[in-house]
Structures are given as C-alpha cells and as structure tokens.
C-alpha cells in the first residue's frame, strides 16, 4: 500500500494539472486500503480473502461551477487527462452559489493530535485463522449450541490524504482488527441465531477470541423458544448494541444538508431541550485509538471534541462547507469525503453513563420489552416517526423474562428522546457508545 508522501504527491500533481487547465481552485483526496480476512466454519477453513484498493478524487471549481471525478490510474498522462476532463465538466455545470473550498482560516494548521491509530505489526493469514478457529470453538462448546454459521478474523490498513489549491496537505493512516462469530441454538423450526463481534485499531484492545465466541453462543441459546409479546404502550429498553442506532437517527437529523433542505425533524429546535437534562452526547474525534478518530475532516477543517447535546439541549448542526454556506454559518469539521461532493459524518460519539444500574433502570417496569436486535428501516427523517422490527426479551415485574421475537416497536423520535434514561453500563469500544437506554410509552405490537 502507498505511503502518505506518495499519496500527497499524487494529490499535488493532480491539483497542479487542474490549475493548468483553467480551474480557479481544486482539492484532491486520495484513499488507499488493504485488508485480509480468514473465515472458518465447523472447524474447517471456509475462505481466505485479500483486497487492495487505491483511488484519488479530484474536485475542481471554475467560478461557482464545480465537478468531481475519480481515478485509480496514476500515470502522468492519465492524471493530466483527468484534470482536463474535470475542468471541462465544471464549465458545463450549473452555478452553485454555495460551492467552494473551506476558507483558509478554517483549515487545520495545528500540530496533529496523538491519535495512535496504527498498530505496528499486522497478523499473517495463519494467525488470523487461529483467531477465527478459537472463536468458533468457544461458540460451539457453549451448552445448547447445535450448529455454527462460522467465525472470522480480519486485519486491514487504510490511508487518507487531502490536499487543496490553497496550501493544505495532510494525511493519516489507521489499522483495523476484527473478530466475529455466529452461533445457532436449537433445531428444526426452533433454531435461533445470534452473533458477537468486536473491532479495534490495535490488537491489544480486542478481547480474546474465546470470549467473543462464548458470547455468541450464549446469546444464541438465550433466544431459544421465543414468544410473541402482548401489544400495547409500554417502556422499551434498548440494549447497548442496538441503542446506538437511536443516536444514528439523531445525527442524520443534525446533518447540515438535511437542515438546509428542510428535511429534518429537528428543524427549529437548535438551542432547545430535546432530551432530559441528565443526557449529554459527546463527540471526540481526537480519542486515541478511536474507531472514527481523525485529525481533520474531508475538507481540511479542524476537528475538535464537543458536546452535541449538553444537559439535554441541542447545540447546533453538523456542517460541511456547502451546508454552512447555505445556512450562513461556519463549517464545524464534519465533512466526509468520497468520490463526489463532500457529505457529513460525525466522529466517535457516546452518551455518558447514568446513575442507575441496568437492574435499577428496569426495576419498576411491570410490563415492557428489552430490545437486543432491530430490523427494517422504518424511520421518517422528516417527521421523526419510528417503527422497527425487533427481537429481545420480556421485562415482567422488573425482571428480564423469556425471549420474544416477531414484534415491532414504534413511536416518534422526539417523544422518545424526551423520556430517555441511561444506565451505568457504558462500555467504550464502538464508534457510537451508549449504555442501556430506556424509553417510555412506545407502542409494541406483535407481528
């Protein structure tokens, strides 16, 4: 895989070519990735995969007209041709009064934070196979597990480099380790499946493969003989591995493009309380070894830790340059970069732990549900209406009872956020980390 110096040199050459062909301004973003994975099933090797990819995206501006184009051909002639075609495309594009590069005063010119995103040594395929085998062996050894969907282990490296025509040029790399296993309990029509998976920048931050496999087996067995719950309005408790999805819906509604197009259920609510005052939502792009850590965003704007929700109050929007210009605001360091125009994304997020334990959080629920898996995409980004297929467990008289499946949970995100309560069981190993969350008065219906 290429190094940072090579990636930045390619970006610089592409920008130089774009300027030579008539671009007023340009930026170039280069990405490189390599990964390898090994999968096993029932003790036998199932697949070995390795992939490598490189690409560079050029964005050019001719006045207020812009165009984006991408290539993986780095010969001088190909880069020159790409730049010439991009400029021609921009001249034919409609004017956009909000298009442009980030202002120089917004660019990240400081010293790079110590993010520690790269593990020094990567495993070979034999090591990955041993990890996958250990995870599957532990899952299959769990009492009640009758079959396996397999286990896998993987390792990858990535590099992102960004350069602009007004002098920004930075790059950073990262590594990624992962182990996962999926187990099956029961037999025939009564079979149930569940999984466990962990990812980390450094191998030292991963649990042992045996722990991951054992958790997959225990989760599968716990789901055996599910019932369909009684319907009605009741408290719904979200396990941490699904509760993060609620934050995903919030972030989507906070994104500048959604606000600028007036397609967000949060319109007009900046500076107002949408959660109880016990709830904060913290973003930290500089978290060492974080899965979404980054020193700068996809347009070179500096990133910084901040509270997106402070004592229940919504602070503002997540803005790239275009959406900031449309709204008359400054970019917030949330631009994400692909082949086309920049989008918006957040970095590492978490809701801090609350005071009650998980047992205390559910202790006064006479009839409710604990959701451990969600399905479907029934969320309206404009109205906030929410309806998802689910499975999990009944909560009866303050205790977790038997497994349940084939039901839906429904409500409105604003009403759900307004009653949100958090337990004290926060763990910080995902890109979005939340403790167990409780929401009042949702509609539960069997399907």
TrEMBL record:
Residues 27-90 form the Metalloprotease TldD/E N-terminal domain. Residues 130-224 form the Metalloprotease TldD/E central domain. It comes from the Bacteria. Residues 232-446 form the Metalloprotease TldD/E C-terminal domain. It comes from Pelagerythrobacter marensis. This is Metallopeptidase TldD-related protein. Belongs to the peptidase U62 family. It holds the Pfam family PmbA_TldD_2nd.
């Amino acid at each position: 895989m290429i190094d940072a110096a090579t990636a930045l040199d390619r970006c610089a050459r592409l920008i130089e070519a774009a300027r030579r062909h008539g671009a007023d301004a340009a930026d170039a973003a280069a990405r490189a990735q390599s990964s390898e994975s090994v999968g096993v099933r029932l003790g036998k090797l199932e697949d070995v995969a390795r992939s490598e990819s490189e690409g560079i995206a050029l964005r050019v501006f001719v006045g207020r007209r812009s165009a984006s184009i991408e290539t993986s051909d780095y010969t001088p002639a190909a880069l020159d041709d790409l730049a010439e075609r991009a400029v021609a495309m921009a001249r034919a594009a409609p004017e956009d009064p909000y298009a442009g590069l980030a202002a120089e005063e917004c660019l990240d010119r400081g010293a790079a934070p110590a993010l520690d995103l790269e593990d020094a040594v990567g495993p070979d395929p034999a090591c990955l196979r041993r990890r996958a085998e250990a995870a599957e062996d532990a899952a299959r050894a769990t009492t009640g597990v009758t079959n396996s969907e397999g286990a896998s282990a993987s390792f990858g490296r990535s590099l992102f480099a960004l350069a602009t025509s007004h002098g920004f040029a930075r790059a950073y790399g990262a590594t990624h380790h992962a182990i996962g296993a999926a187990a099956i309990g029961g037999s025939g029509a009564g079979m149930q499946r569940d999984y466990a998976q962990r990812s980390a920048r450094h191998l030292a931050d991963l649990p042992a493969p045996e722990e991951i496999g054992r958790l997959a087996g225990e989760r599968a067995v716990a789901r055996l003989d599910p019932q369909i719950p009684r319907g009605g309005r009741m408290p719904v408790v979200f396990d941490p591995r699904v509760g993060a999805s609620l934050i995903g819906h919030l972030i989507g509604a906070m994104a500048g493009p959604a606000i600028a197009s007036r397609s967000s259920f949060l319109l007009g609510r900046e500076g107002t309380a949408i959660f109880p005052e016990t709830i904060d939502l913290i973003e930290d792009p500089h978290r060492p070894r974080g899965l979404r850590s980054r020193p700068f965003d996809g347009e070179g704007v500096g990133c910084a830790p901040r509270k997106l929700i402070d004592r229940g109050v919504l602070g503002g929007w997540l803005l790239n340059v275009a959406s900031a210009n449309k709204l008359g605001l400054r970019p917030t360091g949330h631009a994400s970069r692909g082949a086309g125009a920049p989008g918006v994304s957040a970095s590492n997020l978490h809701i801090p732990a609350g005071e009650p334990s998980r047992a205390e959080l559910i202790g006064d629920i006479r009839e409710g549900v604990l959701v451990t898996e969600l399905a479907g995409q029934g969320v309206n980004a404009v109205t906030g209406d929410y309806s998802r297929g689910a499975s999990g467990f009944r909560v009866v008289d303050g205790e977790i009872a038997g497994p349940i499946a084939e039901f839906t949970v429904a409500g409105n995100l604003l009403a759900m956020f307004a009653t949100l309560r958090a337990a004290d069981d926060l763990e910080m190993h995902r890109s979005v980390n939340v403790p167990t969350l409780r929401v009042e008065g949702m509609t539960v219906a069997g399907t």
